[in-house]
Design a protein that fits this description.
By secondary structure, the protein is of the alpha/beta class. It folds into four domains: 357 residues, 7-stranded beta/alpha barrel, CATH 3.20.110; 136 residues, Up-down Bundle (immunoglobulin/albumin-binding domain-like); 199 residues, Glycogen Phosphorylase B (Rossmann fold, 3-Layer(aba) Sandwich); 186 residues, Glycogen Phosphorylase B (Rossmann fold, 3-Layer(aba) Sandwich), CATH 3.40.50. It is 47% helix and 11% strand. The protein contains 37 helices and 24 strands. The strands form three sheets. Strands 1, 2, 3, 4, 5, 6, 7, 8, 9 and 10 form a ten-stranded mixed β-sheet that branches. Helix 1 crosses helix 14, helix 29 packs across helix 32 and helix 30 crosses helix 35. The chain starts with a helix and ends with a helix. GO terms for molecular function: 1,4-alpha-glucan branching enzyme activity. One of its GO terms (cellular component) is extracellular region. Belongs to the glycosyl hydrolase 57 family.
Length: 1000
């Protein structure tokens, strides 16, 4: 239609009507603790820089100039969670600062290129403004949007909690929970309950209407074809309809205005004067010029992956790569022209709507918010031009309609037709095809299984009246629901369909499902791992009020879902037969109300030491883990080296132990040759087992000494490899590799870590060490602490009795008189344990506690050196070097000690500190490595500065002098050990790592 034709129509048709502009603002929850430069996290940064800050700038300018405007924005709870998150705020501020630095460099680089320099100045000007505005808003945009709503300029809609495709949720109660949590998050941010809800992907089904009404939702947006295929006349009349079973009103998306704005070919964004999205200097520079590459590389991802920097110098101009330079003034003029054209086109549409409808027509124009600014750079300017032109026409009375929000239409109380609204969505096919096709249909089988488990738990709570009895249980329930919600996000299926970053979407889906099932396992088994729970909460801290609202959700249906129709749901009645199992079985907890399930998987474990052979802490850790894995439905086979007078095979507490003899040699051999021989023997023993008919599901290797056998078995039998790295050569030598042997060990550790599908470590310090030293991706490193067997009963936690029996009194008399307090250290006598620091600190303690005695138990290469230090400090009467002690003596030493001291200079974990805590003894440790993570300073122990004799002596003297404080610490420490470092919990967590390997 020509401009002359448009004008003629406008003069002859002055029918009153409305146009509603709606922007749907949403991002999936892409927050990650580490790493901090993920491609997906940049989606948020780009949206903030190119869409949300520019939109606010437009709104503020219109408001300041008193240009009336009214539009609707839906803000999803996940987007709001990203906006309010302090970590994301900090990272985005850094992103803006870095972008501004690039813009400043571009001013210099383009100084002699007039055609590009003006555009470079535009970017510098805008990014300077965005940084100033963001800091002025205290890094939180949400209050600014709230004020605009309170002032009447915008109407904000909500969305379901994680943008789940609601008709594909199996159980209506969980669809209802998604809607309600979305409403609660909206109320938390904006102070009122929402009136409108953006249904994710405009996906509607009849059962949703009553849920929406129950949550107070008055209107939604659906796709146009949903009305066109119904019996309603509303599609032709451009009027909304009400659902048959509920007063919720559905406004239909207008396809004509959508095509006009959205289409990159027929629509406005494809105009030759607008900025070209795909020509960014992040991709343009540095292909053939090393100086250019050095220039642009710091502004790409840390691994050198090219990304959009946001600086683009070309306009759409023509097809292909041969683009013309961008001219800002031309684009601004074109945006104003297109705004006029859009308003004229809507007037023509309204004039052609059905005239017999009792309600006035309303054209609903919904778009993804990121179209404006991110994809269509001039989009925010177009919106501004739209309202400026509308205001000009209204002043001259040359308009036949108004720009309003859907809620305004409802408040005018026009008669609205009731109609059956069919199941529908937007997108290809119009019925959810994008979110359910052969590439992504596997998702729903696992979502539905997990839904079923979660609801079963809530049903059992209803029967057993368990609700609210435990704050910790409520935290676990809230986190389980949070993880399921995140797995239900429609974004993952969409990404897989679009084939953009399908591996990321797949990983996120599996990750959240596994976490949810892990938490349900805790609830079902009664073994609560607060360490794992805290890590999950820290990873996804969205929806902070979820725990407080659990009871409301529970009473709203989670505990008694009568409307589930035996789990059959809408269009997915046959979906349970599709896909492949994430875990190859239905996971059931070993609870009395459930039948036991068969052994989960057969584990081949490799360890160079295993009881009764105990050289260091590894032997005991592998022993405790393997026997507790047996209780977690794992069949464990351990290959280790032979020990004199021990059977070649025995079943120890359910663990199959094979002690492999090593070749004998008439002469001594080098250490690395001995390691090679041991690995050959272990690999051959494995081969014999497999030839005998054993089928293993994966290999679990402990430390570098078994790497050769692990690698051989992995490659020969195509078995996944999991490794536990208990310590590193780099750490043992304080970051210095000084000789060929150390370098060789370091290389073998690197190889073991990188050959493994998953790596397990015992502390956060080790997580960072492995990630930094061996470049293992953080998502493949699992923090699973070592455990400890508590010697005291739960009833003793707050009433620890340290009174020794008569036998213990006699035992104690070998080391100290009744009035002489005892300090106790046990461990290998090596430099990194810091025993020499302890000896030098003892004279300082004696100044306060003259009669103090120190017992040092263990053997190692520093024995003679320690004897020399004791002699030089004249401590012979105060220090006992016991040498090796068996388990019985070891236990007695723990019970006679008044304070245990572990002054390590390097400590990956610190199991002996936990053992002391489990024995009810106050502890002083070095503030390093795993020890630093075990102790909360001043709460359940003291942490001294590593290598600092004064700091160590102060804390030892304080605990020896203040017995009441020591008992308080011991009580807190014992409680921590029982709740966080229980071997059953640790074995269960290890099983989850096994399941992750199976899932992959």
């Amino acid at each position: 239609m020509t401009e002359y034709d448009l004008g003629r129509v406008l003069q002859s048709h002055q029918q009153k009507g409305y146009v509603a502009l709606i922007l749907h603002a949403h991002l999936p929850y892409v927050r990650h603790l580490k790493p901090d430069d993920l491609m997906e996290e940049r989606w948020f940064f780009e949206a903030m820089t190119e869409t949300y800050l520019p939109l606010l700038d437009v709104f503020w300018r219109l408001k300041q100039e008193q240009i009336p405007f009214r539009m609707t924005i839906s803000m999803s709870p996940t987007l709001l969670a990203l906006m309010e998150d302090p970590l994301m705020q900090e990272r985005y501020a850094a992103h803006l600062t870095k972008g501004l630095a690039l813009a400043e460099q571009e001013l210099r680089r383009t100084a002699h290129e007039t055609v590009f320099h003006e555009t470079a100045k535009m970017y510098h000007r805008r990014w300077s403004l965005w940084l100033e505005r963001y800091q002025g808003l205290e890094c939180n945009l949400i209050p600014a949007f709230r004020r605009l709503q309170e002032d009447g300029f915008i109407e904000i809609m909500t969305c379901s909690a994680t943008h789940a495709f609601l008709p594909f949720i199996k159980h209506p109660t969980l669809a209802h929970a998604q809607i309600e949590v979305g409403c609660q998050e909206y109320e938390r941010h904006f102070g009122i309950r929402p009136r409108g809800m953006w249904l994710p992907e405009c996906a509607y089904s009849e059962e949703l209407a009553s849920m929406l009404t129950a949550c107070g939702i008055q209107y939604i947006v659906i796709d146009h074809h949903a009305l066109r295929l119904s019996s309603s006349k509303a599609a032709a009349a451009y009027t909304p309809v009400q659902a048959q079973a509920s007063p919720v009103t559905a406004f239909a998306r207008d396809p004509y205005s959508s095509e006009q704005v959205w289409s990159s070919h027929e629509g406005y964004p494809g105009d030759p004067d607008y900025r070209e999205y795909y020509r960014d200097i992040g991709y343009d520079l540095g292909w053939h010029d090393e100086d250019e590459w050095s220039y642009i590389k710091p502004f790409l991802l840390s691994d050198g992956t090219r990304i959009n920097t946001g600086i683009k110098y070309y306009r759409v101009s023509a097809a292909g790569q041969h683009k013309q330079p961008y001219v800002e003034a031309w684009a601004q003029a074109k945006a104003a022209s297109h705004a006029k054209h859009f308003l004229d086109s809507r007037a023509v549409q309204l004039s052609s709507s059905a005239s017999d409808s009792p309600a006035p027509p309303i054209i609903v124009c919904p778009y993804d918010a990121e179209l404006f600014g991110h994809w269509w750079y001039e989009g925010p300017l177009w919106i501004e031009a739209l309202f400026r032109e509308m205001h000009r026409r209204q002043q001259s009375d040359k308009t036949s309609f108004s720009l309003i929000a859907p809620i305004d239409y409802l408040q005018e109380q026009h008669p609205i037709e009731r109609s059956v609204i069919p199941t529908s969505s937007w997108g290809r096919g119009g019925y959810g095809e994008v979110w359910l096709q052969e590439q992504n249909d596997w998702i729903y089988k696992h979502l539905h299984q997990t839904e079923e488990r979660l609801l079963q738990h809530f049903r059992r709570m209803e029967k057993q009246s368990e609700w609210g009895f435990s704050l910790l249980q409520d935290r676990i329930r809230a986190q389980a629901l949070r993880e399921l919600f995140l797995a239900q996000s429609s974004d993952w299926a969409f990404i897989i369909d679009a084939d953009t970053v399908p591996s990321y979407a797949t990983e996120r889906t599996k990750q959240h499902l596994l976490r949810c099932n892990s938490l349900l396992d805790m609830l079902d088994s009664g073994v609560y791992d607060e360490v794992i729970l805290h890590a999950m909460e820290a990873e996804v801290p969205c929806f902070p009020a979820l725990q407080q609202s659990l009871q409301n959700l529970y009473h709203a249906g989670l505990g008694h879902p009568q409307d589930d129709r035996d789990g059959e749901r809408y269009v997915l009645r046959d979906i349970e037969q599709q896909g492949i199992s994430l875990q190859q079985r239905q996971r059931k907890p070993p609870c009395p109300q459930h039948e036991a399930y068969p052994p989960f998987k057969r584990v081949l474990m490799l360890a160079w030491e295993y009881p009764p052979l105990v050289v260091g802490g590894l032997s005991r850790a592998v022993y405790d883990l393997s026997r507790h894995l047996v209780h977690q439905q794992c069949e464990v086979h351990v290959l280790t080296r032979s020990v004199p007078d021990c059977a070649a095979y025995e079943c120890m507490e359910g663990v199959h132990v094979y002690r492999v003899p090593l070749p004998t040699s008439v002469s001594s051999i080098q250490f690395m040759d001995w390691v090679l021989q041991m690995n050959i023997a272990l690999a051959e023993a494995c081969d014999e087992l497999i030839q005998a008919g054993y089928v293993f599901d994966f290999v679990h290797a402990h430390d570098w000494l078994v790497y050769g056998a692990a690698k051989s078995i992995k490659e020969l039998y195509q078995l996944p490899l999991i490794s536990t790295i208990h310590a590193t050569e780099h750490g043992r030598n304080h970051g210095t590799i000084t000789n060929e042997l150390q370098q060789r060990i370091h290389e073998l550790e690197w190889s073991l870590a990188n050959e493994s599908e998953e790596v397990i470590v015992c502390s956060q310090a080790m997580v960072e060490e492995i990630e930094k030293l061996f470049h293992v991706p953080e998502q493949h490193i699992h923090l699973i602490p070592n455990g400890v067997e508590c010697r005291l009963q739960e009833s003793s936690i707050y009433n620890i009795s340290r009174m020794p029996t008569q036998e213990l009194q006699h035992f104690r008399a070998q080391y100290a008189a009744p009035d002489e307090p005892i300090l106790f250290f046990i461990g290998r006598l090596v430099y990194e344990k810091g025993i020499h620091v302890l000896l030098h600190a003892l004279p300082l303690v004696q100044q306060t506690i003259p009669k103090v005695k120190l017992i040092i138990a263990g053997t190692g290469p520093m024995m003679n050196e320690l004897k020399s230090i004791i002699a030089s400090l004249q401590l012979d009467g105060a220090v006992h070097l016991t040498g090796f002690v068996d388990d019985e003596v070891r236990e007695n030493l723990f019970f006679i000690a008044d304070v245990c001291v572990f002054p390590s200079l390097y400590e990956p974990f610190g199991i002996v500190a936990l053992e002391a805590m489990g024995a009810g003894i106050p502890v002083v440790v070095s503030d390093t490595g795993g020890l630093a993570e075990i102790i909360d300073h001043g709460v359940d122990g003291f942490k001294a500065l590593p290598g600092h004799t004064e700091s160590l002596s102060w804390h030892m003297a304080e605990l020896l002098s203040n017995r009441e404080l020591g008992q308080q610490f011991a009580s807190q420490a014992l409680h921590k050990v029982r709740t966080k470092y229980d071997w059953n919990t640790i074995a269960l967590t290890t099983r989850y790592v096994y399941e992750r390997v199976i899932a992959q």
